[in-house]
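The instructor's notes for this session suggest beginning with a concrete chain rather than abstract definitions. Hand out the sequence below and ask the class to guess, before any prediction is shown, which regions might be ordered.
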Amino acid sequence: MPRLSAFYNAHPDIALDIQPTSKRINTSADDYDLLIRYTDEHAPIDDHIIVKVTDAHLSPVCNAEIHAYWLQHNALPPGVPLLEDALNHGHQWRNWFRQYPSPDLLEKCSVMRFDLQSQLYEPALSGHGVALCMLEMLSNDIAQGQLHRLFPDQQLATTSQMLAIYPEDAPREAVIERFLDWMVNAAETNNPIVQKDAQ
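After discussion, reveal the predicted structure:
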């Protein structure tokens, strides 16, 4: 996904108040205009509109220093952990190894777990681990060389999606729809999976 600065440049009249949280939002009680949720739950919610922003494909990513070591030694630097989020009961790396076994390369590494997928970004960028990240969120960082994929031709399809959820009677519905139009278009334009499949 592109940086939000692109949205601000395109819509300078709209101010966003973004509040990341790892707690589960009560859609019937909590006060919010729009909820962006990375989830594997797809059930409808009463009196709410749900828009799919993008599917989710996971792949291991790291910073340039770890990637250079990986290319030279075909292994990770000693002590570098694997990072994952808690979705799917925290079995993201387990699912990866089920599809792409690598007992001599990664499976002996320790795993660190974070509440949110978005919390994996900074540790990976800072060289504190290899993160199993959603490619659709990192296309710009990968294209600019800030993050590197360990296995450029491998990705794990998941049942998870990034969903946008908002009340049917949202007072700022017109603003929400403008933001969603931008977000969905940006996800499609910058989606490395879509671009690869189209080649």
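Then share the key points. The chain has one domain: 1-13+30-199. The first strand starts at residue 35 and ends at 39.
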